[in-house]
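Our preliminary data section would be incomplete without showing what the modeling component actually yields. Below, a chain of 313 amino acids is followed by its predicted structure, encoded as C-alpha cells that our downstream tools consume directly.
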Amino acid sequence: MASSSSGLTLKLHPLVMVNISDHYTRFKSQSQPPDAVSNGGEAAFSPPSHPTRVFGCVIGMQRGRTVEIFNSFELLYDPSAHSLDRSFLEKKQELYKKVFPHFYILGWYSTGSEAQESDMHIHKALMDINESPVYVLLNPSINHAQKDLPVTIYESELHVIDGIPQLIFVHSSYTIQTVEAERISVDHVARLKPSDGGSAGTQLSAHLSGIHSAIKMLNSRIRVLHHCLIAMQKGHVPCENSLLRQVSSLLRRLPAIESEKFQDDFLMEYNDTLLISYLTMFTKCSSSVNELVDKLNTAYDRHCRRGGRSLFV
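Predicted structure:
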C-alpha cells in the first residue's frame, strides 16, 4: 500500500487506543458468552463466521497541517447494509460539542489486521462531515514478536486506476502525543492485572521492582553527570557551556526542600497522614470488638432465655 503525500502531521493520544481496545473487548465478550451450553452438557464454543469488528469516530483538533486525535466514541453500524446510524452520530457529536467545543470529528476507527474494501463505504459516508477523514485501524491480534504499536492510520487519496478515478487508502505516519493525566492513567491500566495472571502481591512486587529499577537508573545517570562536572572543573575534559546550561536549568526545576516553609508543610502533611492512619486503626479495632461482642451475645443467647444474664449488655 502506498504512503500518504498530504504532508499532514498526525498525533495520536493513548486514550484513543484504550477506548478502541475497551470497545472491542466489551463487544466480543457480549457477542460470545462463555456460559453457552450445548444439549450434551458440554460448553459450546462456536467460532464466529467472520472476525469481530467494532466501529467508531475519532475526534480532536486540526491546526494547519497538524492533526491531533484526542478522543473517540462508538458508532452504530450495520455491516450488511453498509450504513451508519446518522441520528446516533449527530446526537453524539452534539453532546461532545457541549463538553469539548473545540473538538471536531476527524475520522473514524475500526479493528482488523488491514483495511478492507467495505471500509470505503464508511469513509465516504463521513466525508460530508469532514472532507478528508482519517482512518485509525487497531489490530486486536496478539503478536509477542511485534514491538511496534498495532495501530495503523490511513488517509484517502484519489488515484486513477485503469483510467477510472478511485479513492484508495494510503498509509500515514503518526506520533504518540501524551499529557500528564494520560501517562498516569495508562500506567495505572497497565498495572491493573499482570500478563501472567498473578495475584495482588505479584502486582505490588512488579510495581516496586519497576520503581526500584527507575531509581537505580536515575542514580547511575546522576553519578555520570556528577563525574563529568567534576572532570570539567579539574580541567580533565573541555568545558561545554551548552551542557552546563542544561544542568543549571535542570537544577532550577528541583523543589527548594531546604527551606523552613517546606519543612513545616512537610511535617504538617506527615502528621496528618499519621493521624488518619491511627484513626483508621482505631476504627478497625472497634469494629472487630463489636463483631466479637455480637458473636458472644449470640452464643449465650440461649442461656439468657433460661433466666441467666448475658455476657455483654
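The chain is about 45% helix and 20% strand. The two ends are 82 Å apart (CA to CA). Preliminary results of this kind motivate Aim 1 of the renewal.
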